[in-house]
Amino acid sequence: xxxxxxxxxxxxxxxxxxxxxxxxxxxxxxxxxxxxxxxxxxxxxxxxxxxxxxxxxxxxxxxxxxxxxxxxxxxxxxxxxxxxxxxxxxx
Length: 91
Fold this sequence. Notes:
mainly alpha, two-stranded antiparallel ribbon, 2 strands, 53% helix
């Protein structure tokens, strides 16, 4: 399957949620919540000597979002809310 086909499939499965528009981010604070599941997964992977680079980088991106306001963090926070119902901090 070609990358653009995978992208179309992902968009279809997401139910049209897509990337939030700029006006949908106006009230969203660039702080990505941490439910603890990613942290637990990374800790267990380290304990078991199993590489888990993607989830580790995802967790680190959440921590990075807490450093300062950023457009990227707003998009991540909003997308996690849309796809997984995670909490979003507002201004």
